[in-house]
Design a protein that fits this description.
two-stranded antiparallel sheet; 161 residues; mainly alpha
Length: 161
């Protein structure tokens, strides 16, 4: 006949609650912050590349129209964090004569991808390709800082309670 041993853990609920709070904080606050920092680097490099190919005579500026936006649709569908970097008014095919600074710049696609008569001058794709390791490094370092802060907060909360 085998002997049975029974035991119970007391206080496990508070530990699991702390782990969940650290997880939520790190994922939704720290993770988003770290991802934004990495995306800001890519957006800045895309602006630099767009300034190289912009025609200063027109007044329209592709670099001024580059935007960094939170991807709420992806987050709601999958729970994954994401930012989008693109050109504002990117789908507008307006051929009007608006030459103000923030006017639509539909010609960015022609420069980025080229045409049969013009070679491509990619600035968006190269911004990501050339800086992926730097962006990854920024993300990792910022995410680690967020995790450390969350662990300190959880330890402080555990000491008080």
């Amino acid at each position: 006949m085998a002997d049975t041993i029974e035991f119970s853990l007391i206080g496990l609920d508070s530990l699991l609650g702390k782990l969940d709070s650290v997880k939520q904080d790190v994922k939704f606050k720290g993770g988003r912050f770290a991802l934004r920092k990495a995306a800001q680097l890519i957006a800045a490099k895309a602006k630099e590349g767009a300034q190289r190919v912009d025609d200063q005579a027109t007044g329209r500026s592709i670099a001024d129209n580059i935007a960094l936006r939170w991807n709420g649709r992806q987050f709601k569908r999958t729970g994954d964090l994401g930012f989008r970097i693109g050109v504002r008014h990117g789908a507008v095919l307006d051929r009007g004569g608006d030459t103000s600074t923030n006017a639509p710049t539909p010609h960015w696609r022609l420069l980025e991808f080229g045409t049969e008569k013009m070679q491509a001058q990619p600035f968006m794709r190269s911004a990501l390709a050339d800086n992926i390791s730097a962006a990854t490094g920024i993300f990792v370092s910022e995410y680690e800082k967020a995790i450390d802060r969350a662990i300190k907060r959880a330890a402080k909360k555990a000491a008080q309670g």
